[in-house]
Amino acid sequence: MNRSISQCAATGVCLAFFSMAAQAQDRAYPNKVVRFITSLATGSSADAFGRAITDQLTRRLNQSFIMDPRPGAGGNLAAETVAKSAPDGYTLLMSSVASNAINMSYYSALNYDLRKDFAPVTKFGSIPNGLFVSPELPANNLKDLTTLLKAAPGKYSCASSGTGGLLHLTCEMYKKAAGLDVLHVPYKGATYQPDLIAGRVTLVFDNIPVYVPLVKSGRLKILAITSATRSPVLPFVPTAIEQGLPNFDSRGLFGLLAPAGTPNEIIQLLNREIGAVLRDPAMKEKLIAQGIEPEAGTPEGLRDLIQSEITKWARVIKDAGIKPE
Predict the structure, then answer these.
(1) 72 pLDDT exceeds 90?
(2) Do residues 179 and 185 make contact, with C-beta atoms less than 8 angstroms apart?
(3) Which domains are present in the chain?
(4) Distances from the Cα of 107 to the Cα of 100, 104, 288, 317, angstroms
(5) Is 271 exposed, middle or buried (0-12, 13-18, 19+ CB in 10 A)?
(6) In the chain, where does DSSP find H-type helix?
(7) 197: burial class by Cβ within 10 Å (0-12, 13-18, 19+)?
(8) CA 171, CA 173: separation in Å to the nearest integer?
(9) What does the alpha-carbon distance between residue 65 and residue 160 come to, in Å, rounded to a whole number?
(10) Which tens digit of pLDDT belongs to each residue from 6-48?
């Protein structure tokens, strides 16, 4: 016997490793790499969220769980990849729920159906959006901003990372709710920050975490949180709902979807293990400090969330007359 192996076995140091390896080999699922296909930008807050979960699942189940970025086509490439994959639990979609729901109405034809071609596994949680403006803009709350924008129709602008995305539609939802005429300025990706800081564009709705340093340093102002509750990382900022816009809710929502037909025992195992990860006190504290709000749930709860997001954003798209570019 190899001397190092003999010594390891004699001292018992490797017994735990051998036991874990044997369990992974004997278990029906998972016994090979599990991929979370995603359209999320590498390095983004949402990407970090997914990696935190896959790292913990790897430790809990003694099998590799990895993020597999498939950007492109507004998230449709990632979704289509999973929809057409074998329903065996090894190719899953880390869904940006709002974005995938928007695509159901924004695109006239898709090669998948979000409601029929996927089996919901669990909700992960959310990243609230905020309304950000230049510090030079003479508005310190949502009422001030709305008054300013109403006084000069067509003068001011709202930036986004592209037509038809969540940030654009959140702007359209604000315009509709407040009766505003504001120019939409689409950028290619999140490249608008310098223009926002300089005041060349007036406002943007975006995920809170990456903006926290800019707000704390005074380079940008945040006027509202666009979720039902305030953000733990910026607790002094009131929500849009608190400031007079009823039901104004726009968040980065995240969940896990499997191809339709995936065995229920696999769905339940993933739901149970991810729930345990998200309820871990240390994990919750770490995520909340980053502006991420973890929240587990049932497959049925995720299914209902998807349907409600499809309905909400379809109405915004119709009201604004938005068409694919």
Answers:
(1) no
(2) no
(3) 3-127+252-320 (3.40.190.150), 128-225 (3.40.190.10)
(4) 11, 6, 34, 11
(5) buried
(6) 3-11, 15-26, 45-61, 76-83, 97-106, 142-151, 166-178, 193-198, 212-216, 264-279, 281-289, 299-320
(7) middle
(8) 5
(9) 32
(10) 444 444 444 444 444 444 445 689 999 999 999 988 888 888 8
